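does this look right to u?? copper (II) ion version
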Amino acid sequence: MSVLINVAGLALMALIVWWFWLSSKGRPAKRAEGGGAIDIVVDDGVYEPSVIETNAGDTLTLRFERRDASPCAEQVIFHKLDVSETLPVGEKTTVTLTPETPGTYRFTCQMQMYQGTLIVH
Ligand SMILES: [Cu+2]
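got this back:
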């Protein structure tokens, strides 16, 4: 009987892991096309979209629309790219950057509660 329970427990764990893996995979990455700006909404602790893809050497224009008035959302910082910007509430703030080196770069608020990923191909 205990073997059966263990098997059921393992199956449940596998299901949970699979669920989380799927849900993170299922989050669509937004790809920059032809120099168009990408709008990112800053609200409820998440950047939406939170995964941005671009090509090395391309100039990327991101428009951050901050809806969250809490101080947490005040800044966006692109780590390793030396870019940061203050986001006024209720406005769209344009951030322009040209990543030269392929890689994965994080962008976060100053407390790192908002989390985003910039993938440079
Ligand atoms: Cu924060």
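The chain has one domain: 30-120. idk if thats expected tbh
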